[in-house]
Amino acid sequence: xxxKIVGANVLxxxxxxxxxxxxxxxxxxxxxxxxxxxxxxxILIKKNFFDTQLLSQYTLIKGSSPAALDSLKGPxxxxxxxPPYKKTISNEEAIIISELLSFDGIFVYEHxxxxxxxxxxxxxxxxxxxxxxxxTVSYFELMENL
Length: 146
Description:
Layout: H1 2-5, E1 9-13, H2 19-26, E2 31-36, H3 39-51, E3 58-62, E4 76-81, H4 91-100, E5 101-112, E6 120-121, E7 124-132, E8 135-142
C-alpha cells in the first residue's frame, strides 16, 4: 500500500476526524480531498490540519455522499470510505466512486465485519479483505485492471 500512497491524490469520504487523509499525507500523498457533513467533525478536521501544518494539501467539502461526490473531478489514486457503523455504500455511491478512481487506484472500504459487501461494487472488484475484530477493510480495484 505504501507505494500507492506516495504522490497520490486522495479522496476521504465520511472523513470523520480526517485521520486517514492526515496519515496518507504524512506518508507522501500529494493532496487530499475530504468529504464530511457533521459540523463537529468539520471543526476537528480543520484543527487537525492546522495543527499538522498541512493546510495547503487538503480540500474540505461539507456535504454528504453521494451528493457531494457528484461535484468532484477525479481521478483519485486512493479513495477511503469509512461510513458510520451501520451505514453501507450504496450502488449509486459505488458507481460514482468507480468513475472517480484512477486506472490503477485503490478503493479502501471499512465496514462492520458482520456486513460482507458484494464482490463487485460499481465497476470495481474486491482484491483483498482484512478483518480487525468488529471491523473489516475491503480493498477494491477497477475490474479492467484485473
